[in-house]
Specification:
Layout: E1 15-18, H1 22-33, E2 38-41, H2 45-49, E3 57-58, H3 62-66, E4 71-74, H4 79-88, E5 98-101, H5 106-119, E6 123-126, E7 129-130, H6 133-138, E8 141-146, H7 152-162, E9 163-170, H8 177-205, H9 210-217, H10 225-236, H11 245-262, H12 267-284
Parallel strand pairs: 1-2, 1-4, 2-3, 4-5, 5-6, 8-9
Antiparallel strand pairs: 7-8
Length: 298
């Protein structure tokens, strides 16, 4: 297959997506549905090749993926991996290429990645996304973005394809304004997840019908959609990953570390990390983060 040529029109920028795990694969399919030319690369090649049937070009290397692309979109696990892959692609990155860094890597790593972008004369946009498997696959993510106005035209069709809304929070990606907001949001998501898991585990421990708990809060201020989703997974004993324990643990550590640097004590976040660590040690790192439920039992 021949790699798609770059299309510099606002409507059809060519996107090189590096990292096709749960989130990256969903985002790639959303981009393809929107009619954008997409090149994909993943360290585990089979994950990228699975997207070829959907119309993506499977690149053999990061350099091949980014060569001539209008937008580089990174969706890898953490800051060091993002930096390592971008260094692999460095010789094929043209000055001025727009780089939307969408992985959750924290504020400190974002500053380091922005430094690499300056060295290579790339247009860096800090662009983490909020959501999990289903929103990624449906193009319903919330995109948080910080970067120069000059990048917005080329990124608009990209962000519109993967997200229901884009929230621009700054004009300099190096400040990590979007990544800092993402940490706050992830802290809230993690707290809700653990609260749902603990309520369901306490119901079990006290021999209370968990459905009675859900019926009691139904329709009131204590009810919310996230509780319903995680409770349903626990009741069905279905921990197919929408967002895995391992990824949630990584994000939890980023939250705690950021709080420590800021002089903010985050007792709930630290306790949440400990719960995820217990669950991961029990071999459930690949399960959905609702598996925090199991941390309540020996």
């Amino acid at each position: 297959m021949t790699a798609p040529t770059a299309d510099n029109t606002k409507a059809r920028p060519t996107v090189a997506l590096l990292g096709t795990g749960i989130m990256g694969a969903g985002m790639a399919r959303s981009l393809l549905r929107a009619g954008l030319p997409v090149r994909v690369w993943n360290r585990t090649r089979e994950k990228a090749e699975a997207l070829v049937a959907d119309g993506a070009y499977g690149a053999a290397s990061p350099a091949e993926a980014v060569d001539g692309a209008d937008v580089v979109l990174t969706m890898l696990n953490d800051g060091p991996r993002v930096l390592a892959v971008m260094r692999e692609a460095a010789d094929a990155l043209a000055a001025g290429t727009v780089w939307a860094q969408s992985a959750t890597v924290g504020d400190a790593a974002t500053a380091e990645l922005a430094g690499f972008a300056r060295e290579r004369s790339l247009t860096f946009v800090d662009a983490p996304v909020l959501g999990s498997r289903q929103p990624a696959e449906q193009g319903e993510l919330l995109v948080l973005a910080a970067g120069p106005a000059s990048a917005r035209d080329v990124l608009t069709p990209v962000f519109d394809a993967v997200g229901r809304r884009t929230l621009w929070v700054g004009d300099d990606g190096a400040t990590a304004a979007a990544s800092r907001l993402k940490l706050v949001l992830n802290g809230w998501v993690s707290a809700l997840n653990h609260a749902a898991a603990e309520a369901m585990s306490l119901a079990r421990g006290l021999d209370v019908d968990p459905q009675a708990f859900l019926d009691a809060v139904a329709g009131g201020v204590l009810d919310n959609g996230y509780l319903r989703v995680k409770a349903a997974a626990i009741l069905a004993d279905d921990f197919s990953p929408s967002f895995s324990v391992t990824n949630a643990l990584k994000d939890g550590r980023l939250i705690v570390e950021a709080g420590e640097r800021a002089g903010v004590r985050l007792d709930l976040a630290q306790a949440g990390v400990a719960r995820f660590e217990r669950v991961e040690r029990d071999g459930r790192g690949g399960d959905d983060m609702a598996a925090s439920y199991f941390a309540s039992f020996d």
